[in-house]
Design brief:
This protein is of the alpha+beta class. The chain folds into three domains: about 5-85, Rossmann fold (3-Layer(aba) Sandwich); about 90-110 and about 180-295, D-amino Acid Aminotransferase, Chain A, domain 1; about 115-175, Dna Ligase, domain 1, CATH 3.30.1490. The chain is about 35% helix and about 25% strand. It contains eleven helices and twelve strands. The protein has helices at about 15-30, 45-50, 65, 70-75, 85-95, 95-105, 155-165, 215-220, 235-250, 285-290, 295-310; strands at about 5-10, 35-40, 55-60, 115, 135-140, 150, 175, 185-190, 195-205, 225, 255-260, 270-275. The strands form three sheets. Strands 10-9-8-11-12 form a five-stranded antiparallel sheet. Helix 1 links the parallel strand 1 and strand 2 (about 35-40). The chain is globular, with a radius of gyration of 19 Å.
């Protein structure tokens, strides 16, 4: 029986979501007949990881440390199988600007973006708008809509800058044109059983508030999720093909989720890629996997097996 250590927590803003996701994965592993333990962590060191007694690590952490390459680098140094991307791919995917640049080289449509460094704006009232409103401000390296600001006018822009400067974590953000009257779509990808990736069904997300923010994702139950929504076949094919191409270019392994917006004219636009999607009751990858015949226990076992199969031990010196 394979022993699996499921990790949750981490030091980032999505800690509570991570714990909920990890709890779901832990339960799924147990139901699949795996010997699984759940461990809530902060920033484990290589020495601490080496002390863990498990054949496979399943790190269900969200945010810069747990999903952005730091944890993956430490896991790699311990030379044991773990679920998810290696460190380099995790770093690229966590950087939304890097992801958009890669997408552009693949001719995947994505809106232009501008970097916002809050330290450069000493007086938000004098800050010049880099693009026309409405616009969206979001951290370059964070998720779950943490630090998301919608600016419909100049005063919203000032308010957003003031809020960012007053926050504890003044991190680099990005500014994009807001896609209005849009439909939000997502494509999950998972290992196909032979170290390649396959696309799962498209899911449409329809939040009651019109914005799929943190509250719509995790705190309310009025968001509607539609698997295989009414879309043209060629659009579905494009979304799935783009998702696979982007993930392969990034170097994703085992699982990921790629998010898009469909504007009022029916044009799709890439938003970002996530290399450790949520595993909560409302999370999207488990919904897509279940629709493909992989309910949570089978999905968890599938990913654990993928980690074992794709592991490349570091040669001893």
């Amino acid at each position: 029986m394979t022993s699996v250590l499921v990790l949750g927590g981490g030091p980032d803003a999505e800690r509570e979501v991570s714990i909920e996701s990890a709890t779901g994965v832990h339960q799924g592993c147990l139901e699949a007949g795996l010997k699984a333990e759940l461990l809530i962590v902060d920033e484990p060191s290589v020495d601490e990881i080496n002390e863990w007694n498990a054949e496979v690590i399943f790190p269900v952490l969200h945010g810069r440390f747990g999903e952005g390459g730091q944890l993956q680098q430490r896991l790699e140094r311990t030379n044991r199988p773990f679920v998810g991307c290696r460190a380099i791919a995790a770093r690229i995917a966590m950087d939304k600007m890097a992801t958009k640049l890669l997408a552009a080289t693949l001719n995947i449509p994505t809106k232009p973006a501008v970097i916002l460094d809050p330290s450069l704006y000493t007086d938000p009232h004098k800050a010049v708008l880099p693009i026309d409103t409405p616009l969206v401000i979001k951290p370059v390296a964070d998720g779950s809509s943490c630090g998301l600001y919608i600016c419909n006018n100049h005063q919203d822009w000032i308010n957003a800058l003031e809020a960012i400067k007053a926050s504890d974590q003044q991190q680099v953000s990005m500014i994009e044109p807001m896609i209005t009257s849009a439909r939000e779509l997502t494509v999950s990808v998972i290992d196909d059983g032979s170290d390649n990736l396959k696309a799962l069904p498209v899911i449409e997300i329809a939040p009651a508030s019109g914005i799929y923010d943190y509250q719509a994702k995790y705190e309310r139950n009025d968001t509607i999720y539609t698997v295989n929504p009414d879309l043209a076949d060629d659009l579905v094919s494009d979304l799935q093909s783009w998702s696979l191409s982007l993930c392969k270019q990034i170097g994703v392994r085992h699982l990921a989720r790629v998010d898009f917006m469909l504007d009022a004219s029916g044009n799709p636009w890439l938003l970002e890629a996530n290399t450790m999607p949520g595993f909560t009751a409302s999370s999207l990858l488990p919904k897509a996997a279940a629709a493909s015949g992989l309910p949570m226990p089978q999905l968890c076992e599938h990913l654990v097996n993928a980690a074992i199969r794709s592991h490349q031990p570091i040669p001893s010196s």
